[in-house]
Design goal:
Blueprint lengths: L1 H24 L13 H5 L8 H14 L1 H4 L8 H5 L18 H10 L14 H13 L8
Helix pairs in contact: 3-7, 6-7
Bound molecules: heme C (HEC).
Length: 146
Amino acid sequence: MRRTLLVLSAILLACFGVASAQQGSTPKKPDSGEPQMTPDDAAKKNPIAPTPEGLAEARKLYGYHCAMCHNKNGDGKGDLAVEMKLDLHDWRDSSSIEKMTDGELFFIVSNGKGKMLGGEGDRTPEKVRWNLVNLVRSFGKKGVGD
Ligand code: HEC
């Protein structure tokens, strides 16, 4: 009987160990309540090919909602960014964001991140958000976007 109890408690302990280890690895919601990017989000491919029309539409919105921080030319030195002392990527150098996937950029455009609050998810159609990703990438290509 003693033995069985011992074995049982050993099994129970092992189970708890696994359970708490799993709990430790699940991403915790940060205090800010910011949405968390999943691997699926990051793996998304841009379904919208860049076209002059699509980029023009995105550029218009960019002028109202993004340029105060990321600046008209994408160098990250917009008035608000300077005021807030934000250290933003200079997108004119495409290597600044080449390690980020389109899915990651799209997620940030849609949900914001850190001091970039909210994002466009609630107010801008998905297609235009993908075009914003195209626009952001275009700053790093010579002769486009300036
Ligand atoms: C209040 C200033 C602010 C505004 C307005 C803003 N952003 Fe950002 N943006 C940031 C900051 C800060 C980051 C870096 C966030 C981080 O990594 O913590 C960022 C990051 C990004 C990124 C990820 C790539 C990178 O360089 O880190 C993209 C893409 C982006 N912004 C696009 C946009 C678009 C498109 C708009 C307009 C719809 C916009 N942002 C409006 C501040 C801003």
